[in-house]
Design goal:
There is one protein chain. The chain has 319 residues and is an alpha/beta fold. It has a 6-stranded parallel β-sheet, with helices on both faces. Strand 2, helix 2 and strand 3 form a beta-alpha-beta unit.
């Protein structure tokens, strides 16, 4: 008889859906440890704009995979998958339950499905493609892509420089169209019996109100000062992944621009609402989710009760 897979809880949801509070209650009541699934929480010294748990919260419910790198560095889905699987293995070895909580849906997808086998970027080849684009224009390179990979070219605009460049790069490196390779994943298995939970809003407008209030609170807590400090402490550029994060990008533009704080708030709130929309789109594509209304008043106890019964039904130890 095959040995049962170790348990894991996957807690997903859009920004401002209450994931942190639910994750903490799950960890405290179900013998669990939290693994952050958030592409912004990996950065050190980025605390306000990422809504990073404070020291008191972390002491009561430690989080793994936060404060890993400086804002000048980058962190990929492949790195996340490797780090998350290693951390989950360590948590399981301690006889505890990994609780993966966050809103970076690409990371969840990478964790559960593996990493695309498409080749890594080639800086020299990219530079060569960019040089050709400067001379010939991106529509000309799009026409070339149409001959090499008609399926990919058909879904791209002739001015979509980034995606045209990547598609040509894959064609040159592999000798095959990206459309024939897209979707192939590494064979690394996600060897866990996982409970995927989604915190979704029954009323999108109420979630938007939460988002607006949270961004306003970030500004009051010193988001602008935080970005100023980061710019002094690190050699940053607006093109770095850390500074493209929602909130930081708008604060950077504010510091360099000529619009006022009111406009900053409006831009930050709008960008965060767009982020939530993208997260909800990702979630709708995930099968077999257990859905809870993130606007429910007793959300954390409801989710914890459900997850506790699920664990007991599989004979996992619950505190």
């Amino acid at each position: 008889m095959a040995k049962p897979l170790p348990a894991a809880i996957l807690l997903m949801g859009p920004t401002a859906s209450g994931k942190t509070g639910v994750a903490i209650e799950l960890a405290q009541h179900l013998n669990g440890e939290i693994v952050s699934v958030d592409s912004a929480l990996v950065y050190r010294d980025m605390n306000i704009g990422t809504a990073k748990p404070d020291a008191k919260t972390l002491s009561s419910a430690p989080h793994h995979l936060i404060d890993l790198i400086d804002p000048t560095q980058s962190y990929s889905a492949a790195q996340f998958r490797r780090d998350a699987l290693n951390t989950m293995s360590e948590i399981t070895a301690r006889g505890r339950i990994p609780i993966l909580a966050g809103g970076t849906m690409l990371y969840f997808k990478a964790l559960m499905e593996g990493i695309s086998t498409l080749p890594h970027a080639d800086p020299d080849l990219r530079l060569e493609i960019e040089d050709r684009a400067k001379k010939q224009g991106w529509p000309a390179l799009h026409a070339e892509l149409s001959a090499l990979d008609p399926a990919t070219a058909a879904r791209l605009k002739p001015t979509d420089a980034q995606r045209i460049q990547r598609a040509l790069e894959v064609c040159y490196l592999t000798g095959a169209p990206m459309s024939q390779q897209f979707g192939k994943r590494s064979a690394d298995d996600f060897a866990y019996d996982a409970l995927p939970i989604a915190l979704l809003p029954s009323d999108r407008s109420e979630l938007h109100q939460r988002i607006n209030a949270r961004f306003a609170a970030m500004l009051e807590s010193g988001l602008i000062d935080e970005v100023q400090h980061l710019r002094k402490e690190y050699e940053l550029a607006p093109t770095l992944p850390a500074m493209r994060a929602v909130g930081y990008r708008q604060a950077w533009d504010f510091l360099d621009g000529d619009f006022d704080r009111k406009e900053l708030a409006a831009r930050g709130m709008a960008a965060t609402r767009q982020l939530a929309k993208r997260q909800l789109t990702w979630l709708r594509a995930i099968a077999k989710l257990v859905v809870f209304d993130c606007l429910e008043k007793k959300l954390a106890p409801s989710v914890t009760d459900y997850a506790g019964h699920w664990l007991k039904g599989k004979n996992f130890r619950v505190m």
